[in-house]
User: Fold these one by one.
Assistant:
Number 1:
Amino acid sequence: MTTRPAPVIVWFRQDLRLADNPALDHAVRTGRPLIPVYILDDGPAVRRIGAASRWWLDGSLRALDADLRRRGAQLVLRRGDSEAELRRLIAETGADTVFMNRRFEPDAFLHDADIAHALTADGVECHGYNGALLARPGAVRTGSGGPYRVFTPFLKALLEAAAPPAPMPAPAAVEAVSRLASGSLDDWALRPTTPDWAGGFDWTPGEAGAATALAAFVGRGLKTYSKGRDHPAEPSVSRLSPHLHWGEIHPWRAVETARRAASNGHVAPAEAEKFVAELGWRDFSAQLLHHFPQMTDTAFRPGYDLMPWRDDPDGLEAWKRGRTGYPIIDAGMRQLWTTGWMHNRVRMIVASFLVKDLLIDWRAGEAWFWDTLVDADLASNVQNWQWVAGSGADASPWFRIFNPVTQGQKFDADGRYVRRWVPELARLPDRWLHAPWTAPAEVLRAAGVRLDRGGYPAPIVDHAAARDRALQALRALPATGD
Ligand code: FAD
């Protein structure tokens, strides 16, 4: 009598794709039946997925399940404590191996390691891979063996040391264990209903959506990426961030596609390399957080934790709702709320406004972004907030305080971005668009703009005074070095 080989589990997490997926590839190579599973674990071990990201997750899991079904399998959905659910699945099926792509955020990394140790102790093999980053954190080190704290040498070393993995096509067919109990995404209710605040989200989560976004970007925005990426009204950026966060595409595929466009003469090499450098910031953020896990809660440069942050619930609320009276800030915050995403240039301006003009703790902004971004990513979010705040590694100096009016005039000179997201200012001429309170009364009247509580708000702070206040607070800090 022949005994059936034990099945193997593929534990999907932030790697919701079939191609270039090392865990899946290794599992398929065993030749044994697979159990593809996603476990929704809202336990305390890792930070709870934010609301906009849950919206994305719903779509991405549906897409992954459909892709598996086309290959003869299906995604098993389980909800609860990850280790307990894996053990239950092992008991149900006799599976003896778990394949997973590692998560590198510190809490998730430790949690996964604990689970792997516990299962291994009980005779279950666990295999982990890097399917998320250009290089695993720790693979690229300084001459003295430590982690990089400065981006430019990190990028140089990364691109010298790391090489793209060989392509791993999606398997043509997946032999899977059938008839396993599975939860239902409808029951999980990851998307909001009453009210459906995500009605304006216009995204296609999933591996096919990621490929389409990359192809569209390489065909258009990449040509003028280095300059165009600073102008939020231009379609010059890839909008790949949520796809990358959820692992719907391997970052090396994005690098290779951009470089191929350059070698085919479709775009200038410098444009492709600028895009590669931005992907490098993603790796830089991940390796920083991996090596300095306290960064999620405390300033990378400890002196900054002595900033006299203001308790200003009204200011914070005005910022969140896009009612600060500064059009570029309000446009960005409304774009975020309506679409689950904000252009990078505007992320920098709104973050600077919160931290420096309002003197509100960067952690409050980071938390709001975490909940409202479809690309919310612990490493990138924390690293960038600390970068803007001046407290991070290789950060923007604290004394560089963005002026929201001149930033708007410079990067949204024709006002297309502000007019789209702040329609009550649409008829205001360019000259006053980024500072409506400076417009003569008759200009405001002709444009139908009222600067009051019922209309568009007057500025909630005076930028020049706020700037002085911020600089004074900074100078009073005892030490701001690292
Ligand atoms: P592109 O310009 O097309 O860049 C390609 C890819 O490179 C991006 O998808 C992203 O993966 C990576 N990238 C680009 N810029 C950065 C950067 N500064 N840091 C890290 N990776 C980068 N990005 C997130 O993915 N998640 C976040 O939670 C996040 N929070 C941020 C918070 C603040 C305050 C700021 C200033 C930036 C934040 N970013 C975050 C970085 C950046 O704004 C987004 O990655 C970018 O806007 C995504 O749009 P895109 O895919 O069109 O970018």
Number 2:
Amino acid sequence: MPLHSHPVLPPYRIKVVEPIPFLSPAERRRALDEAGYNPFNLRADQITIDLLSDSGTGATSAAQEAGAAEGDESYAGARSWFRFHDELRDLTGYPYLLPVHQGRAGERILFASLLKPGQICLSNTHFDTTHANVVLAGAEARNLPCPEAADLDSADPFKGNIDLVALERTLAGPDGDRVGVVLMTITNNGLGAQPVSMANLEATRELCRRHRVPFFLDAARFAENAWLVVERDPAYRDWTPRQVATRAFELADGCVVSLKKDGLSAIGGFIGLRDADLHASCEANLIATEGFSTYGGLAGHDLERLAQGVREVVEPDYLRARAASTARLARLINEAGVQTVQPAGIHALYLNAGRLLPHLSPAEFPGHSLGCQLFLDGGIRSAELGSLYLGEMDDEHRLVAPAPFELVRLAIPRRVYTDTHFEYVASVLADIAKDPERVSGYRIVSSPPLLRHFKVRLAPLAG
Ligand code: F0G
């Protein structure tokens, strides 16, 4: 054993920077009040540390920007398309690739061809837009998370897995004929950023084969899932993350991918397919609604950034440093007295607000309250994943069925914040944890009928 170990270093240095705003506490209080206490209504220039999403928020590299300058904006058959295509072909092995402007456009197009009204989409957990696009296709979205996922504190390495017993029971049961697709989300964003194991992917593929159901990946964080496999499964210790990612794509019949995460770019996505007929059907829809099949709603410079981004994202040094940075933030937060969903994933940490704020009932939205306090005290923006987002309300906006947990997601943009920014986040949380009773609850003032969390307005219960 070495006498000392050095910190894990990010394999890059910073070349271009952007100032971040520092508002006074009074300015933050006014900003949040004007936003109806909904962080989605804040202006980005009112936020000091923005952990709302890891989607489209990463920093690009010099090599990506150099590629972007070479972007070929020809309407059809652009050079940039072939670069994008060849990179993804090499990574995924899929013979058919369709570019889309972001993940949900891919979901809409894929489900329109893959799912018939009345069918069921089974998943470890659907992301919210994925769920919405399944429903828009007239189908039902059903989640079958593994039982280990329900224990937020357990250190089980692959809590993102699908429940294989429930999957087999469903496929062999009375609903089996209605299952149109099994969709595995890697990593499981809806359930604590937990990874899916290769064994779980293999077993799912076998069940899908046996029951003749297509098996797809929602692979928005394909590289981060691969890294967690390398770190946590001894059988893959000697694999590169790129090899693990390629193997995961190989196990599935196709994929739908938002490249706003592991594409290391602001925009982009793709559909990968093996089936020629399904490709033809999706391509017709793509051309009618997104753009021609060699750009799919993306500019040539976007295709260039993405082609380079998917190459950089599987580099072991990059993934090791990113995972270490998130794990370090988790440690600081836990030491400050705030519990997080265990074990720490990579793209986000999930704070257990229900446990930190036991004086607030689910109807007073402890996750939302903690999120507001993070902004009021430190200018930090986060996302509630609790009863405000997932609970059931009556017509008067009263909570009738709470969410299973009251969580707050701190999403970590890629290559954007340093460990000092994260020390600041942990320090703001530590102050809240010293006196949690000062955090007030909230009530809903107005709420739209659909996609509540984006447009809901609230007011504090105290003060
Ligand atoms: N699938 C997963 C697992 C996602 O996390 C997202 C987006 C999508 C699909 C949709 O992709 O945004 O490119 O249309 N997640 C972001 C987030 C928005 O903050 O978790 P998109």
